[in-house]
Amino acid sequence: MGWTTALVAATSVAQISSQNTIGKFNEGVNNRNAEVLENEKTAIANKTELDLANFDKQFQKLEGSAVVSTNKSGVAYEGTALRIARANMREKVLQENIIKYNSKVAESQKLEQANFARIKANMARQESKLAMIKTGSSLGMSLLTMSQGTTV
Q1: Of 37, 60, 74, 78, which sits 20 to 30 A from 21 (CA to CA)?
Q2: Are the beta carbons of 101 and 38 closer than 8 angstroms?
Q3: Handedness of CA 20, 23, 26, 30 (dihedral sign)
Q4: How far is CA 63 from its chain centroid?
Q5: What is the DSSP letter of 139?
Q6: Is residue 52 within 8 Å of 100, Cβ to Cβ?
Q7: pTM of this structure
Q8: Residue 35 CB: number of other CB atoms within 10 A?
């Protein structure tokens, strides 16, 4: 084996090693991104619980103020006051459902982004493997061509 053959083989092996390292790195980066997105999904769920608790607290204050105002004015808690309380309760349920819905949409988006990041990680690894195969086959072709050149 001549020095040119050794040089071609050594550079090809170094290139294959680099392609492997780059593929693993890119895979790791995208997997990390997926984990971050999944953590953001969890944070959204936690924030939703906090938002609902705060909303309920504010609603209780509003409801208490309305009852106190109604009683203070001497009006019985019936008729218009009761209709207002029922309307407020319906609005409360509607707002809670909107908060939950928006949270689920945001969580779904984060999960979808995490899934795409994992797909990108897998693709990065597969691309590096393909590049390694291509480099290996180029090495084989070069060595074959070089060996044919020396026998002729």
Answers
A1: 37
A2: no
A3: negative
A4: 39
A5: H
A6: yes
A7: 0.72
A8: 13
Structure tokens at 11: 């550079």
Q: Distance between alpha carbon 101 and the CA centroid of its chain, in Å?
A: 19
Name residue, tokens 């924030």.
47
Residue with tokens 């790195």: 25
Q: Are 23 and 120 in contact (CB under 8 A)?
A: no
- Sequence letter at residue 117: A
Kindly report, residue by residue over 3-62, the tens digit of the pLDDT. 777 888 888 888 888 988 999 999 999 999 999 999 999 999 999 999 999 999 999 999
Question: What is the biggest distance separating any 2 CA atoms in the chain, rounded to whole angstroms?
Answer: 115
Closest to 124 measured CA to CA, from 12, 16, 30, 14: 30
Number of residues assigned to the chain: 152
